[in-house]
Design the sequence.
């Protein structure tokens, strides 16, 4: 995109990339091409998103909501973008074998920033009326279906990353489950990063569940090549009345990956949402999860595990907004940090004046295996209703020495005792996986990860 | 089997054991009694290698091996078992997983193959009966939510599973009602052979009605100051410790 001629020049350029100036130039010059390779519906809000990004820029750690993640370095890299939608010469259905035995998922791929279009026979059994495919294609073939949903949450957020995504994302994964249709098997979306040069992917996913619908989505993040990757993904999920939605995010990317993900969920009356965000291996990860509980009698379970070592960073920024009465939410995040890993957790909980009888609980527990590891945790409760049950708790500690000695006195080696305790620490989050095959696999992956063995899935060739 | 010579031990710089001497042979049951703060539990901790305690002088040999050189897990695998005064709750670690790991670590130490699933289940069933332990308990996390009595029963269950040569029962009677005490004591007695030995640490004589000792030692101010047979325990029960304190302090 830009030739770097000499050293002085390149320093100036680096500063500009993370400040967003280069992307602003890029958009001004190429927005025609960006739009021509996307859907009119997605383009409707594109310029406005760009305008917002121009005024906000990329978030810096000076902002309250980003104080635990410094994106300056990863965003200073000059990444390639694929705005002309050039074909990537790889068939993920051939190179990727999901190694969750017995998951029997409906399997789809987003290759870098675009939905991979090949039809796979495994997906032929989808129930009638369910639509899964490329967001940009379906936005063109079924605009009426999408127009009340696309961007309806994301464009209301004053967030530099979400605005950037709105300007640059051209495609993504789309799923529509009509009223009263319940998917019998999980849907799996694998985000694969494949490039020979440092690369940035922006994709937008849209998921709509009608009344009484049920779906489980497993999102896996993988990287294939040893280059620097940045992904900036926005996922909007609309969960209809009485619908049940489970969202599992499993990140297993290499250490040169910067993964920025924004998951926005809106719940209607009496719906049930489970989101379980598991970071097994990564570089720098920022997950923003915002759940808008916008109907009575909803249930929300939001949980996650982080296992990080070396220089890995994981920041989960969560926000649950109770706008209506008689809802329950429960939040549980656990981190195990080793070496110089850094963790961040923010638990925003907002209970509106009218949201009486809300029961909202939040827990964040962290174990630091070395003194050099760092954890920052911040519960942030704003409660305006007076008849509610809310609690929060956060702990940062080491492994229980008494439990260690107890196990060792039974002949269990220190290393094995440590492992049992760490595994036990994560067990209640893993128990919040409602897909048995996935639960077994995650148990195994977490154990391997804690043992210091590779925890990568088969399809990934990079993780060290 | 066990020979403790002139042991001195500190916790946080404070000397608790001050030249303790004790010899235990196979087939023997030794009771250690003494007032609060005498060092009874410290002795248990030092024997099992609790890292919170520092041994500054003396030696402990077990089957001729220097125990002070070994880690807690090595000592356990050499055949020393401690029934804890306060068994630790370990949420998230199931009893089954815990026991299987312990058994297999012991087998590995003794250069044996891991136990087969069926043998393990048979062993669990057999030993559970011995301490009349409820199936529900072994399906739970280690000691989590167990009552005081259940925890102590679980200690004896683990002892039965690991089949140690030397068992140290640290205040196993504390917090037990009379029925639980009988069950626990019966378990201990059934596990007794002429090859293994037991050290019973207790405050009260009550437990010794059920587990009858060959020797009773009085531990006071970090040393064993008096040794007798089971009648010494009865005498202590009747007269308290003050006369011993006087005897020692008056020396």
Sequence:
């Amino acid at each position: 995109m830009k030739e770097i001629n000499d050293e002085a020049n390149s320093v100036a350029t680096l500063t500009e990339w993370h400040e967003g100036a280069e992307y602003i130039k890029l958009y001004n010059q190429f927005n025609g091409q960006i739009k021509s390779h996307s859907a009119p519906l997605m383009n409707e809000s594109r310029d406005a998103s760009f305008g917002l990004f121009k005024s906000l820029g990329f978030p810096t750690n000076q902002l309250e909501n980003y104080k635990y993640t410094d994106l300056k370095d990863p965003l200073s890299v000059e990444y390639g973008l694929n705005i002309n939608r050039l074909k990537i010469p790889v068939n993920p259905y051939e190179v990727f074998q999901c190694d969750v035995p017995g998951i029997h998922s409906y399997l789809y791929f987003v290759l870098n920033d675009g939905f991979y279009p090949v039809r796979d026979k495994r997906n032929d059994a989808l129930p009638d009326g369910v639509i899964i495919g490329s967001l940009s294609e379906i936005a063109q073939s079924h605009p009426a279906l999408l127009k009340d949903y696309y961007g309806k949450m994301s464009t209301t957020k004053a967030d530099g990353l979400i605005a950037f995504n709105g300007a640059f994302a051209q495609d993504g994964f789309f799923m529509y489950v009509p009223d009263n249709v319940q998917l019998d098997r999980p849907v799996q979306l694998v985000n694969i990063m494949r490039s020979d040069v440092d690369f940035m992917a922006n994709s937008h996913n849209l998921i709509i569940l009608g009344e009484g619908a049920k779906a489980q989505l497993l999102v896996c993040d993988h990287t294939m090549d040893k280059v620097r990757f940045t992904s900036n993904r926005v996922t909007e999920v609309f969960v209809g009345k009485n619908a049940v939605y489970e969202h599992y995010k499993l990140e297993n990317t290499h250490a040169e990956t910067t993964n920025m993900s924004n998951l926005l969920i809106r719940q209607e009356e009496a719906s049930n949402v489970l989101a379980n965000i598991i970071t097994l291996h990564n570089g720098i990860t920022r997950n923003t999860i915002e759940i808008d509980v916008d109907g009575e009698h909803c249930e929300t379970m939001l949980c996650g595990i982080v296992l990080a070592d070396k220089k890995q960073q994981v920041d989960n920024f969560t926000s649950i907004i109770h706008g209506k009465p008689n809802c329950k939410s429960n939040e549980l995040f656990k981190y195990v940090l080793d070496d110089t890993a850094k963790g961040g957790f923010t638990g925003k909980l907002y209970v509106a004046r009218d949201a009486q009888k809300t029961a909202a609980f939040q827990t964040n527990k962290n174990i630091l295996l070395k003194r050099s590891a760092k954890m920052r945790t911040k519960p942030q409760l704003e409660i305006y209703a007076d008849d509610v049950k809310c609690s929060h708790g956060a702990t940062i500690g080491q492994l229980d020495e008494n439990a260690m000695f107890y196990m060792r006195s039974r002949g269990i080696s220190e290393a094995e005792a440590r492992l049992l305790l760490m595994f036990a620490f994560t067990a209640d989050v893993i128990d919040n996986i409602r897909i048995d095959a996935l639960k077994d696999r995650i148990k195994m992956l977490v154990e391997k990860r804690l043992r210091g063995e590779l925890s990568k899935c088969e399809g990934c060739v990079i993780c060290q | 089997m066990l020979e403790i010579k002139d042991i001195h031990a500190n916790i946080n710089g404070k000397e608790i054991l001050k030249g303790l001497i004790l010899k235990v042979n196979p087939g023997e049951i030794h009771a250690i009694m003494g007032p609060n703060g005498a060092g009874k539990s410290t002795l248990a901790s030092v024997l099992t290698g609790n890292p919170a305690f520092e041994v500054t002088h003396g030696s402990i040999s077990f089957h001729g091996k220097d125990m002070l050189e070994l880690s807690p897990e090595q000592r356990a695998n050499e055949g020393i078992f401690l029934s804890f005064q306060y068994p630790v709750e370990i949420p998230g670690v199931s009893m089954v997983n815990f026991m299987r790991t312990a058994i297999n670590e012991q087998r590995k130490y003794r250069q044996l193959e891991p136990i087969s699933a069926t043998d393990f289940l048979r062993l669990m069933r057999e030993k559970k009966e011995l301490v009349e332990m409820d199936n529900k308990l072994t399906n739970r996390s280690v000691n989590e939510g167990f009552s005081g009595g259940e925890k102590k029963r679980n200690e004896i269950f683990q002892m039965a599973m690991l089949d140690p040569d030397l068992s140290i029962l640290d205040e196993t009677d504390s917090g037990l009602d009379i029925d639980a005490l009988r069950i626990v004591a019966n378990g201990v007695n059934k596990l007794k052979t002429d090859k293994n030995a037991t050290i019973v640490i207790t405050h009260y004589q009550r437990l010794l009605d059920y587990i009858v000792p060959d020797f009773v030692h009085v531990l006071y101010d970090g040393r064993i100051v008096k040794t007798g047979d089971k009648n010494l325990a009865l005498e202590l029960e009747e007269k308290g410790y003050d006369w011993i304190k006087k005897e020692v302090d008056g020396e």
Notes: The interface with chain B takes residues 400, 402-403, 405-414, 416-417, 420-421, 423-428 of chain A (CB under 8 Å). The CA atoms of residues 353 and 384 of chain A lie 5 Å apart.
